[in-house]
Amino acid sequence: MWSYRHQNFTVHQFPALKDNYIYLIDVHNSETLIAVDPAEAVNLSHYCNEMGVKLTHIINTHHHWDHTDGNKALKQQFNCLIIGAANDAHRIPALDIPVSEHAPPEISGLNIKVLELPGHTSGHIAYLIDDALFCGDVLFGGGCGRIFEGTPAQMWNSLNQLAQLAGPTKVYCAHEYTLPNLHFARTVDPENETLIERIHHDTQTRVEQQPTIPSTIALELATNPFLRPLNRTFCSRYAKHAGCALDASHVFTDIRKRKDSF
After folding, report:
1. Of residues 12, 175, 189, 202, which has the active-site annotation?
2. Residue tagged active-site, from 12, 26, 37, 62
3. Predicted confidence (pLDDT) per residue in 133-168, tens digit
4. 48-75 pLDDT tens trace
5. What whole-number distance in Å separates Cα of residue 251 and Cα of residue 249?
6. 124 part of the active site
7. Which domains does the chain possess?
8. Active site annotation includes 57
9. Spatial distance between the Cα atoms of 61 and 81, rounded to a whole number of angstroms
10. pTM confidence score
11. Whole-angstrom Cα distance, residue 116 to residue 156?
């Protein structure tokens, strides 16, 4: 387990399944402990018991099983409250509190904003807690989620919302996909020196069996091929090379299609 201290809380991160991450948000000076997207229950329960803290809440970003499979067992064990998107309530197991952009969850000691980010799924949301973004499968290290239920335009709009966040914002996504994503990024952005540096850094990080996540919004803007269309120079160069329209949304759509078959 790895831990990252923020002003009002500490984020504990541990791996699950093949490449998932589950996060525990431990609120300072409080008995509040929140699990983010529990892919499974057994290891999470173990960590809670090891910490000597009862799980009080679960927040889900979307309905996919590898983000919600632990909901029912954890609720049964800890009697915790389960929070998820109001417009996806029927697909979130054991949901107690439906939330939205205009009706965020109220948890003592935390200022939580809900961002509605359709694209990967129709009801995907993210939680922004101070300078920590829990974004599920919308934004990854060096990548973004596949478009299963939404449209490329929706996904692009969702990524644009995240691009507006402060550069130092920590990006806590749900999967360790960074290195494969960066190797794809190199094929569409080969002259990006910051990207090359990130590949070297994150490769060594994985050799040392450490997570490449969290990253930051600033790092993703500089190296993530699905945010790079916001850079005019990149956008123009890519559109000319790929023969697509000189428009950030069209460039994103073309890159997403290329990644799907990479």
Report:
1. 175
2. 62
3. 999 999 999 999 999 999 999 999 999 999 999 999
4. 988 888 999 999 999 999 999 999 999 9
5. 5
6. no
7. 2-227 (3.60.15.10)
8. no
9. 15
10. 0.96
11. 13
Contact present, 16 and 22 (Cβ < 8 Å): yes
Q: Name the active-site residue from 67, 88, 202, 250.
A: 67
CB 56 within 8 A of CB 42: no
120 is catalytic: yes
Candidate list 12, 63, 120, 124, residue with the active-site label:
120
CA angle 181, 152, 233 (to 5 degrees): 65
Annotated catalytic residue, options 37, 88, 137, 202 = 137
Active-site hit among 57, 63, 64, 250: 64
Query: Is 137 in the active site?
Result: yes
Question: Helix (H, G, I), strand (E, B), or coil: what is residue 223?
Answer: helix
How far is Cα of residue 39 from the mean position of the Cα atoms in its chain? 14
Residue 6 falls in the annotated catalytic set: no
Beta partners for residue 58, in sequence order: 35, 82
Give strand pairing partners of 140.
Answer: 143
Which tokens hold the place of 198? 């990130």
**The two three-digit tokens of residue 70, written as one number:** 């632990």
Tokens found for residue 49:
């018991």
Q: How far is CA 125 from the centre of its chain?
A: 10
